Amino acid sequence: MSCILAVAQRGEAILNLNAAEVASSELNSPWLKQLAEAMHSTMLQKNGVGIAAPQVYVSKRLIIVASRPNPRYPDAPEMDAVVMVNPEILESSATTVLGEEGCLSVPDERGQVARAESIKLRYLTVAGEVVETLFSGFPARIVQHEIDHLNGVLFIQRL
Ligand code: K1U
Ligand code: ZN
Predict the structure, then answer these.
(1) 54: helix, coil or strand?
(2) Active-site option among 26, 109, 117, 146
(3) Which residues contact 15 (CB under 8 A, 6 or more apart)?
C-alpha cells in the first residue's frame, strides 16, 4: 500500500471548487501515477467505494470508482478499481433512481439521492487512452457522486 492521504472534510474550501482538467503533459507522468496509487490506498483504507482528487486536496479532475456488494447494495457488481482522468458524462438516462449515499468527506451523514440510473461516460486512462463506456446501477451512482466532487458539489446539497 502506498501513502495514505488526509481527506478533506465538509466546510473546507477545496471541496467547493471546480477542479482543473488534467493537462496532456501530465498524462503517464510519475506524479499522476503516484497520485492515483495514493488515492487508491486511501480509498481502501477508509473502506470507500470511490474517491475524487479534491478530497485529498488536489483540485484536478481525477476519480477512482470501485463498486462492490455492500449491505445497502447487495447486488452491486464487484469491480476492479477504475482510475478515470477528465471524466465526462456524455448521456444520462431520463430515468432516475433514489439510493443511499455516504461520503468520506461527510462521515456522519447518509441520505437518499436521486441519480440517473445509467450514464454513458468518456474518460482517459492515466496513460492517456480514451475510453467510452456505459455504467448503470450502483457504479453509475458512484461515478455521478465523484464527478460532483470535481464540480464542487457534495451529496448533501442534493438532499
Ligand atoms: O466519494 C466518496 O466520498 C466515497 C463514497 C462513494 C459513494 C458511496 C455511496 C454512494 C455513492 C458514492 C463512499 O465510499 S462512502 C462509504 C461507503 O463505502 C458506502 C456508503 C454507502 C453505500 C455503500 C458504500
Ligand atoms: Zn463523497
Answers:
(1) helix
(2) 146
(3) 8, 54, 55, 105, 149, 152, 154
Measure the CA–CA gap between 157 and 138, rounded to whole angstroms.
20
pLDDT digits (tens, 9 = 90+) for 88-97: 999 999 999 9
- Asked whether the predicted pLDDT for residue 1 surpasses 80, the reply is no
Domain containing residue 122: CATH number: 3.90.45.10
Domain that holds residue 37: 13-158
Q: Does residue 21 sit within a domain? A: yes
C-alpha cell at 157: 446539497
Residue 2 predicted with pLDDT over 90: no
Ligand 1 pocket: which residues have CB below 6 Å?
Answer: 47-52, 70, 72, 100-105, 141-142, 145-146, 149
**Position 104: which residue type?**
L
